[in-house]
Design goal:
By secondary structure, the protein is of the alpha/beta class. Helix content is about 50%, strand content about 10%. The chain contains 12 helices and 6 strands. Helix 2 crosses helix 5 and helix 4 crosses helix 5. It binds magnesium ion. The site of magnesium ion (MG) has 9 residues, from loops.
Length: about 250
């Protein structure tokens, strides 16, 4: 019988790994860059421009791997690796500011195809949505209410300004659970980046990985994703089935 339930094996594997008996989704904790917006190309381009101008050695694609970290943490990592010291608070602030200016000067980013349907599905299922981003990029944060009208409550947002530790630390998602008043086994995380997936899984949430850039699906699985979808459009198509399966598996005798 269980083999007829879509995603049942993935769900059971997740329950076992986290020692849960149930997942009852009450809140969706949703990443922004690369999940709601097709913004990663612009982010990697502006990081690359900033860091090469500052005399750091780097490649454009390596910034995909740092996705999810706060800007300050990315900057500090370069200072530690290539200057042998921490970046000062002023350096972090100034360089991150320059990075946001470079980002804002690039052509506007588009909403990720499928993202609106994904968020709407959670809303229709009565599942609270919380934005959880390592970004402090106000040019995108300010667009959210226009692009996803009525879907995100302003009080339910966790940005780089609200946390001490960015992803892959679980703090951003734990903070989001507290805001929504839910427990880890009542939470679904939506993520596109390995560090974000790792943070979601470490926070104890059922973490859905979606590949929307050059990172291969296996990296998201290794980071702890319960399920990986090959695109946000496919994720949006499958999400109603997956939510139903989560509830069906709960009611099976085990
Ligand atoms: Mg992301």
């Amino acid at each position: 019988m269980i083999e007829h339930i879509p995603y049942a094996q993935d769900i059971l594997r997740f329950l076992e790994r986290h020692h849960y008996t149930h997942v009852v989704p009450k809140a969706a904790l949703i990443d922004m860059d690369g999940t709601l917006y097709d913004s990663m190309k612009n982010h990697t381009q502006s990081w690359y421009r900033l860091m090469t101008e500052q005399g750091f050695e780097c490649t454009r694609d390596e910034f995909y791997l740092y996705e999810g970290r706060t800007g300050a943490s990315t900057i500090n990592q370069f200072f530690l690796a290539q200057r042998g010291r921490e970046a000062t608070e002023d350096e972090k602030k100034e360089l991150y500011h320059t990075k946001t200016v470079y980002f804002s000067s690039l052509p506007p980013v588009e909403v990720m195809p499928g993202a609106f349907d994904m968020v709407s599905t959670f809303a229709a299922a009565g599942i609270t949505r919380v934005l959880v981003t390592g970004s402090g990029q106000s040019s995108l944060l300010n667009r959210l209410d226009n692009d996803f009208p009525g879907l995100f409550d302003n009080r339910l947002k966790v940005t780089s300004r609200d946390v001490k530790h960015g992803k892959p630390h679980p703090e951003p998602f734990i903070r989001a659970m507290q805001l929504a008043g839910v427990s880890p086994s009542q939470s679904i995380v939506m993520e596109n980046a390995p560090l974000g997936v790792e943070a979601g899984d470490r926070a104890g949430a059922f973490t859905i990985g979606v590949t929307t850039g050059p990172i291969p699906p296996d990296e998201l699985r290794k980071a702890g994703a319960a399920i990986v979808f090959p695109s946000m459009e496919e994720c949006a198509r499958q999400l109603p089935t997956l939510l139903l399966s989560l509830l069906t598996v709960n009611n099976l005798p085990r």
